[in-house]
Amino acid sequence: MMAKQIPIWEKTALTLKEAAEYTGIGEAKLRILSNDPNCDFVFWNGNKRMFKRTKLDEYLGHISYI
Description:
Helix content is 39%, strand content 18%. It contains 3 helices and 3 strands.
C-alpha cells in the first residue's frame, strides 16, 4: 500500500526544498531568513530545518518585497 501524498499547501511542516517550491523563494534565501535566532517559522528536527507553513505564510504576508 502506498502512502497518501499530502499537497504542500495542506502540510503543517515543510522541508527546505518544499518551502522553496511553496513560496517561490530560493533555498539559499530561505536559509538566510531562517538562520535568524528570532525566526519563529522554523524548527529543527535533528539537523533538518523544517518550516512551519502557517507561520511562514504570516511572515511573508508582513514583508513587502515579495
